[in-house]
Write a structure and sequence with these properties.
Distance between the termini: 23 Å
Number of helices: 5
CATH topology: Dihydrofolate Reductase, subunit A
CATH architecture: 3-Layer(aba) Sandwich
Structural class: alpha/beta
Helix content: 10-25%
Strand content: 25-35%
CATH class: Alpha Beta
CATH superfamily: Dihydrofolate Reductase, subunit A
Radius of gyration: 16 Å
Largest sheet: 8 strands, mixed
Oligomer: single chain
Shape: globular
Number of strands: 8
C-alpha cells in the first residue's frame, strides 16, 4: 500500500487563497475530471484525511467517495457521518487500522499541510503530487512550514495537463521522522 497526496498550489507557493479556500477554486480552468482526479481516486482503495477536510463533505450534495473506505484523523464524530467512516484521534492507531483493512491498493491522503506532515513524520507518506496552477495567489497558506522543510524528495515524474497545469510527482523518503508532529493527536491539530 502506498499513501499519496495530490494537491494544487499556485505558482507563488500557496495551497489556499487568502480567505482559506483551496487555491484551485481561484483557477478559472479548474476541472477535476480533466486534471485526472477521478482516475486517481478510482485506483485508490481508501481515503485518509483530517477533520477540516472531512467536515465540509458532510454537507455536499452527494458523498464524494462513494463506497471507498474513509479514514479521518479527528476526535469527534460529526452528525451525519456515514457509518462506515472510521474516525480516530491517534494517527498511529488510525494508520494501523487503515493498513489492516487494505486490499493492496493505494490510499489517497486528502488533506492540508498539517495532516500531510503528520503522516509523513510517521514514515507513511510515499508520494507527494503537486499540481502547479498558472496563477498567483499573493497570500494564503503554504505547504510549508507545516510540512517539514527537510523532507527528502526525489522527482519521479512531470506531466502537463490542460490549462497550463503542470503536475510534479515526488517520492518521499520513507524514514520516519521524530519530533512534535509525530506525537500530536487529532485534538492537538486543527486536522487540516
Amino acid at each position: 500500500m502506498k499513501i499519496l497526496t495530490r494537491m494544487c498550489t499556485s505558482l507563488d507557493g500557496y495551497v489556499t487563497t487568502p480567505d482559506g479556500w483551496p487555491v484551485q477554486l481561484a483557477f478559472s480552468g479548474w476541472d477535476a475530471g480533466a486534471l485526472g482526479f477521478y482516475e486517481l481516486q478510482a485506483r485508490c482503495d481508501a481515503v485518509l484525511m483530517g477533520r477540516t477536510t472531512f467536515e465540509p463533505a458532510l454537507s455536499a450534495p452527494f458523498w464524494p467517495w462513494g463506497d471507498v473506505p474513509v479514514y479521518v484523523l479527528g476526535s469527534l464524530r460529526p452528525a451525519g457521518t456515514p457509518d462506515p467512516v472510521i474516525i480516530d484521534n491517534d494517527p498511529t492507531r488510525l494508520l494501523e487500522r487503515l493498513r489492516a483493512s487494505n486490499k493492496g491498493g493505494d490510499t489517497h491522503l486528502v488533506g492540508g499541510p498539517k495532516t500531510i506532515e503528520t503522516f509523513r513524520s510517521l514514515g507513511a507518506l510515499g508520494e507527494i503530487r503537486l499540481l502547479e496552477l498558472p496563477i498567483f495567489s499573493g497570500a494564503g497558506r503554504r505547504l510549508t512550514p507545516d510540512l517539514s522543510a527537510d523532507t527528502s524528495l526525489t522527482l519521479v515524474d512531470a506531466h502537463t495537463w490542460p490549462g497550463g497545469v503542470v503536475e510534479l510527482t515526488y517520492s518521499v523518503d520513507s524514514a520516519a521522522m521524530t519530533g512534535d508532529s509525530a506525537a500530536m493527536t487529532g485534538d492537538d491539530r486543527d486536522g487540516s
